[in-house]
Protein: Lipoprotein
Organism: Hyunsoonleella flava
Amino acid sequence: MKNILFTFLIIIALFSCKDNTKEKTKNENGYNENTELKEDPKLQVLINAIILENDVFEVYYYELGQDTFHPKDFVFTKVIGKPESQDIIFILPEKTYPERLRLDFGKIKTQKPIKLNHIKILYGNKEYTFSEDEIRNEFKASKYLDFNKNKFLLSPREIEGRYDPYLYTKKVSNIVNYLIED
């Protein structure tokens, strides 16, 4: 009797711990069918560049209603230096739709000039690639970053002991809205 009760409890426990990623919905015939719950895609920023030294890059963002970039609103990624082009991808937190972006190009003061190839914003299967003219005219460099707009070379520099090389965008909310709309 104890074995039957024990087996029965095991069976109940197994069925009560089933995967809840499916949802029952009625199709047009009124029958229940299981459909996968979809996770919303996250906005991504992709920088393609040649970075020669290992470093840590960051993307800061602020959303509608904010006045400036907040020190807590950023994502980062480690970059492995190499002489070939590479994609550096930043995944923004879920339901983050920035008004502006700030692309920080490293923490190490010995970083060599960076050859910037292109910048994209991605969402699901949609993407927006900034044109060379948009990068030249709509991305502004901090005083800690020399931006050769003809060769697309970014040269970080230290000034009076401070080091903070970055590019920041004008408004990108129209691009973000385009990407997230159905």
